Amino acid sequence: MYNIHEIKLQNQQDCISLLYLCLASELLSLCGRRGEEAVQKAVRRYGETRGTSARKRLELAGIPANLKNLADGENDCPVDPRFRKAELARTEQVHLWEVYTCPMADLWKRMQGAQIGRLYCDEYCRAFYHGFSDGAAQANITDMLTCPRNNHCRFSVYYRPSNIEEPSRIFSSLDTRTPELTEPIWSVGGNESGSFGRLWFLLFHCMAAQAEELLENEGLSAVALGLRRLAREQAAELRRHAADTKTSLTDKFLAENFPISIRSGGETEKELCSEKESRLLQANFYSVLERELNVE
Predict the structure, then answer these.
(1) Do 99 and 153 contact (CB within 8 A), yes or no?
(2) Best CA proximity match to 27, nearest among 201, 212, 276, 174
(3) Higher pLDDT, 189 or 137
(4) Which of 72, 162, 244, 275 is at 20 to 30 A from 263, Cα to Cα?
(5) How many domains is the chain built from?
(6) How many other C-beta atoms can be found within 10 angstroms of the C-beta atom of residue 250?
(7) 148-174 per-position pLDDT tens digit
């Protein structure tokens, strides 16, 4: 069983998974193989951006940006307790682990989108560690929960001193003066709800920007349709969450269970999204979601 605080975080995590599913579904459906390429490149862009940001946060904190410190505490959002995994190896140069339950895979399978989810899983891990290591690490995912043949995901990441310049800055085994991570970077002055909102806008921006870059108006039309589908699906999910917790669908409930405002993205949206992307959101997501929810 999960407490009410954990349930609220889980609901916000599911919003990001649903955003990906709806946008990717429309791009694949309307644009075929070119749509698949746009989805793959968007996930790579999203993963590399997050990986690069994770490295910079460690560096700004004076922490060596190696695999152990990353795994020990560098998270840019709270960890969803529905992720259950086993660590097989965790050192500065090697990180091996298996995941046995994953809320992203669960949502995608529940909504008949497991195959679309596999595109995400296949691209994100490699892109994240490419961004984190500036291209020096090798990452693989050899089994995926989104594949019906598998009952776990298996991740393998290798980050060798021989692949980088000045390895003593990163690997404490080569320089005993380097400090160790003592607490998660995201928790220092962090905002749990705000971090999910940032990821939501970042993922949307990567999907929309890549769709426009590769497919121009056709890609943006697919994104617009995806946003309209997302608004309907998201409204249904939020109504279900409210009923499950015997809560009224109020602004307070939405602020605690949905990572962004249903009316406007505010400063985070302005920072991460272009004006054209913001117009897409206003016309195809905010207005539809607010109408569907009929908030009290």
Answers:
(1) yes
(2) 212
(3) 137
(4) 244
(5) 1
(6) 12
(7) 999 999 999 999 999 998 898 899 765
